[in-house]
Amino acid sequence: MGSKTKILVENVSKVFTNSKGEEQPALREVNLEVREGEFLCLLGPSGCGKSTLLNLVAGFDQPSSGRVLIDGEVVTGPKPRYIAIFQNYGLFPWRTVLGNVEYGLEAKGVSRSRRREIAKEYIRLVGLEKFINSHPHELSGGMQQRVAIARALAVDPEVILMDEPFGALDAMTRLKMQEEIERIWQEKNKTIIFVTHDIEEAVYLADRIVVMTSHPGRIKSIIPVAIGRPRDRTSYDFFQVRDTIYKEFSLKRETSLDYYI
Ligand SMILES: Nc1ncnc2c1ncn2[C@@H]1O[C@H](COP(=O)(O)OP(=O)(O)OP(=O)(O)O)[C@@H](O)[C@H]1O
After folding, report:
1. Would you say residue 110 lies in a domain?
2. Distance from the CA of 43 to the center of ligand 1, in angstroms?
3. How far apart are CA 40 and CA 61, in angstroms?
4. CA 133–ligand 1 middle distance (angstroms)
5. Ligand 1 and 19: CB distance under 6 A
6. 140 lines ligand 1 (CB under 6 A)
7. What's the domain range around 148?
8. Where is each ABC transporter domain found (predicted)?
9. In the predicted model, what is the mean pLDDT of residues 160-164?
10. Which of 15, 71, 156, 186 lies 20 to 30 A from 36 at CA?
């Protein structure tokens, strides 16, 4: 991880107006610095403003007060050059795996032959070379998510924002995808903000975990995860960080309980 600041969230508040015309504070005075090449997880209960914060960083929405900077420039709108986002898979059902991965490169104006070359590289990276001509409906959920990752990476964004990308996957596939995204992140040196509800997912992936609380959404604490990679989910260090987070959410019983055996 570099020491350069990649993303800066300065005193950001966001108020929505609901259908009755009432003001709903979604985020209050959020301050956050993300370093270049960092893997940052946003963790918190439903409604604490994780997606709102991600959308503000992506430039899909504007803060009510405060500002977001990427590379020192205020974010005023989405910049695909910097950012890829994937919620669910968002694949085009009528396109093959290759066609889906090529999509972002078409928008970028990359030539046909170069497009093919780049798309194939990323399809290989996510281990789907045998399925290059398949359509999304022929693939499992985990494979579709791999296509979505390949498509996002193919345009070579410096920052990747991921909103619960593995939420719909079964537990085993989810663990595998966590390993894959970690490998890709290390290989490609991206800055990632990753939203999750899942404490263990955050401990496995993050350099730092931003714990958020709701009503209104605020940062409760930022917990560094100083465990070497790849991480062993059964190690003492892993349990320790996990327990720290459980305590943050007051989910850990104070009496001694061997609940992880
Ligand atoms: N467009 C909107 N209009 C009105 N209120 C909104 C809007 N978007 C979000 N909110 C409110 O802002 C708060 C934060 O929502 P947000 O989706 O950011 O939370 P979240 O932490 O991502 O939740 P989840 O984990 O369930 O996706 C919620 O109370 C939500 O109802």
Report:
1. yes
2. 14
3. 21
4. 38
5. no
6. no
7. 90-156
8. 7-239
9. 90
10. 15
Confirm if 143 and 131 have CB atoms less than 8 A apart.
Answer: yes
Q: Residue 179 and residue 197: Cα distance in Å, rounded? A: 17
Closest CA to 33 of 60, 82, 70, 74: 70
Q: Is 83 in the pocket of ligand 1 (CB under 6 A)?
A: no
**Which helix (DSSP H) or strand (DSSP E) does residue 176 occupy?**
helix 171-188
pLDDT tens figures, 180-227: 889 889 988 899 999 998 999 999 999 999 999 988 899 999 999 999
Residue 174 lies in a domain: no
Q: Residue 191 falls within a domain, yes or no?
A: no
143 domain residue, yes or no = yes
Count of structural domains, the chain:
1
Whether ligand 1 lies within 6 angstroms of the CB of 16 is answered as: yes
User: Which residue carries 């005023």 as its tokens?
Assistant: 76
Contact (CB, 8 A) for 198 and 164: no
**H and E: helices and strands count for the chain:** 7, 10
Residue type for position 70: I
pTM confidence score = 0.88
Each residue's pLDDT tens digit, 36-55? 999 999 999 888 999 999 99
Backbone angles phi, psi at 57, to 5 degrees: -65, -40
Beta strand 39-43 pairing with 83-86: unpaired
